[in-house]
Specification:
The complex is a heterodimer. By secondary structure, chain A is mostly helical. Chain A is 74% helix and 3% strand. Chain A has one domain: ABC transporter involved in vitamin B12 uptake, BtuC, CATH 1.10.3470. A two-stranded antiparallel sheet of chain B has the order 1-2. At the A-B interface, helix 4, helix 9 and helix 11 of A face helix 5, helix 11 and helix 13 of B.
Amino acid sequence: MTEGQLLSLGQQVVSGLSAGSIYALLALALVLIYQSTDVVNFAQGEMAMFTTFIAFTLLTWYGVPFVPAVILTLVLAFLLGYLVERVVIRPVEDAPVLSVVIVTLGLYSIFNSVAGWVWGYVPKGFPSPISAGTVRFLGLTVGLLDLWILGCAILIMALLHLFLHRTTLGTAMRATAHNRSAARLVGIPVGRMLSLGWGLSAVLGAIAGMLAAPKIFLEPNMMAGVLLYAFAGAVLGGLSSPSGAIIGGLLVGVIENLLGALVATELKAGLAFFMILAVLVVRPQGLFGTARRRKV
Amino acid sequence: MLGRLLLGVLVVALLVAPLFVNQFANFVLSRMAIYTVVALGLNLLTGYSGQMSLGHGAFFAIGAYGTAIVANRLGLPWPLCILVGGLVAGFAGYLLGWPSLRLSGPYLAIATLALAIAVPQALLKFEGLTGGVQGLKLAQPRPPAGLGLAQDQWLAYICLVTAILMVWVTVNLVRGRVGRAFIALRDSEIAAQAVGVSLPRFKTLAFAVSAFYTGLAGGLLAYLLGYIAPDAFTLVVSIEFLTMVVIGGLASVAGSVIGAVLIVILPLVSSNLTDYLAALLNLVGLSAVGATTRGLIWAIYGVILILVMVFLPGGLISLYDKIAGFWAAKREGAVKRSAVPSPEVKGGG
């Protein structure tokens, strides 16, 4: 392999990591919800898209400066997630998996079609605080936007880790996910923790959406592909492991970019499908997940 | 007895209807029949066998393309082409059934969702076979000379007869050995295996049969439209399929039919509804920027899905069961009262 090939491979890995960090954020949101409520939220991507549109509206229609607009969006995203759990998910909490999946599919339809109705289907540019320049680093030409996405994602994941492991509230949330009845016995308001988890996931999704939007343009179907890769990442890392979801998401991003460069770009979705299937068949609990024993 | 009579009247009414209604109504009838076949197939898998699928749009596409390709390249008669489409889809379902043996619940949903997204992309990729974005055209079956039927009437007959046939097949299937095996595996894999039901055999069979139904329906759709393209088989189609089965009622043949009829009617009705909604929003000054209110139909689907899941988890058919059960209980109560001598009478004697 010549040096030039090696460099272009390195280039692919870097842009793969940038895409992968978005998958990782969304995968993390999926895992947070799955851990605490056993629900796979098929509407996660659409909620992310919807909140990104809210940010877009604040920025371009109302002329709110970037930072306040982002903060306001995150607050609204949190409320959205919180309310969705409280109003729609709670009533089917004890229903079979199928019912819950169908409810999240219902949410998917609602968010997707309302966004299309309000904002239309024409792709829109999303402002980014980082211009589209490049820097040279170890001989690689790296897009500033890619670096910005990767940096933000790492920062957010670190903050989330600190929140979950170093604060009382975070510990209470983990306790709820771990053993609901035990958590209730030690006085943790379990219901509120579940809503909180959904709120937090919606915030993660909003961040993923806002980071992705400058690259893939804003439109109601923008997150469909991203969600699929996030699923692949979450399944790869294991739906029960947050750090697994991050590693899985990043891996999926890198694999996707490398294969896209080496083989064919048109079959990307097929690739995600085969990756999900292969992982599930060989190791159903994912690379880092723990298998659950079934009781008779 | 009354039920059988009503059923007979319904079948006869369906069989004469294409003669008396206009072209559009025949098209709607045909679509209802096609969706019924899909609903029956998906219900066999999800309702009777307990395996979720978000990927039936993919089997629908495989059936439609299989039919169109065979029809165009080999020039076989249309019933054979539809059958080939169904068989190809069934084989694909059988293949997907194997990895699915190890999956359940949300994992199966994710894997089948990925299939639903992957297949339309593959259709775009393999242009030589599928015609890429342009899709494929195929010649619609000509009505046999001498019957004096118009094209739309003949197509409606093809779809309706297939649907009625599949209803009959399904009713017998779920009553028989295979159907009972599906249900046993759904209710308890361990208990079913303990009495000798082979888990891999019947789970893959459920996938294969379900995909076969859906492929047949895809073939019918290809002939009904005379033209197919990848954008007719997006993820929303798969969600639509699951929606109708759930709204109608899981593990119920009648529920499948009701769900299919509703999912075809709903867009026709709710385009008016969304217009009213838009007018209402305009009144309060919330005029939307989006081009069309028709897009809101998916929001209505979503709301209906959630409402049904929360308030009527058994689907619309459970409403009927509840009412029938209520009446039966009432009648039984009346019988009991008249049959068993009341304590007062006894005490008096």
